[in-house]
Amino acid sequence: MRKLLIALPLMLFGMTAWGHGMSEEDKLRILDAGFLEYIELGAMHMVTGYDHLLFIFAVIFFLSRFIDIVKFITAFTLGHSITLLFATLWGIQANFYLIDAVIALTVCYKAFDNLDGFKKHLDIKPPNLMWMVFIFGLIHGFGLSTRLQELPLGDEGLVVKILSFNLGVELGQIVALSFMLVALAGWRQTESFAKFSKLANWLLMILGALLLLMQLHSYQHAEYADDFPLNKDDHSHVHDDMRKAESGLSGYKKQFNFHQE
Fold first, then answer.
1. CB neighbours of 260 closer than 8 A, spacing ≥ 6?
2. SS3 54
3. Residue 189 forms part of a structural domain
């Protein structure tokens, strides 16, 4: 158990380099990108978006009926599609570290709900889950929008670009969801599911909490850089390097030939 607790922070800091921000290099690459590239960008952004994937995994963890899965995923998809479209179209922005911190809290919330925490620890009836998934979808969509708005989108064909990106997000979500459903379906057939399902959700909650701390840490360094004078240059370089690697477009150039002037 001690080794697991040591490994979790290391794994998450490694995941930061896998993250889904938009680097300066990405901004240059997307200048000549067409709508198909925006679809691919959206898909890659979702499949590398560990916070989104953890939340989806928590949502479907105990869902076994196909109709229930469709209902909840539809609520989540509708929510994040609304804010992704309108926040990007209207230029509504917020600090993406803080938005991602709230997204991390949604992972904690769903894991807590899976553990029946509202009844056991708070002695209250949990809020309507369908509405909560929809509301959390709005938050996740705003997070996607803040990332998309880092790119030089321009005004020409803006709506189509946003819709193309959103379509890519949905395709990426379908791919990730398919793997999750297969894995969970197989796991539910074993005795270990009953034994370790609670542990798995505790792990989800811990991961969500660590993601929250990571995002708040990044926010502090971004907004209050003067408060970290020791090794400031080295520390800044580390964050810059991680930021460059944080993109859903990392490796994108290898798959597509962008127009070069």
1. none
2. helix
3. yes
Surface-to-core class of residue 197, CB atoms within 10 Å of its CB (0-12 exposed, 13-18 middle, 19+ buried) = middle
Residues (pLDDT < 70) of the chain are 1-31, 228-261
Handedness of CA 86, 89, 94, 96 (dihedral sign): positive
Q: Which pLDDT does position 8 carry in this prediction?
A: 46
Encoded tokens for 99: 């938005």
The set of residues, in sequence order, having a beta carbon less than 8 Å from that of 23 and lying 6+ positions away, is 243, 244, 245, 246, 247, 249, 250
* pTM score of the predicted model: 0.81
CA–CA gap between residue 47 and residue 153 (Å, rounded):
22
pLDDT at residue 156, as a whole number: 84
Q: Domain span at residue 212?
A: 45-224
Q: Is residue 253 part of a domain?
A: no
Q: Is 247 helix (H, G, I), strand (E, B) or coil?
A: strand
| Predicted pLDDT of residue 154 | 81
* Residues ≥6 apart with Cβ < 8 Å to 56: 73, 76, 173, 176, 177, 180
Query: What is the pLDDT, as a whole number, of residue 230?
Result: 53
Q: Is residue 183 a part of any domain in this protein?
A: yes
Tokens standing for residue 224: 């209050």
In sign, the C-alpha dihedral spanning 146, 99, 216, 15 is negative
At position 202, the amino acid (one-letter code) is: W
- Residues 6+ away with beta carbon under 8 Å from 123: none
Nearest to 200, CA basis, from 218, 219, 187: 187
Does residue 187 fall inside a structural domain? yes
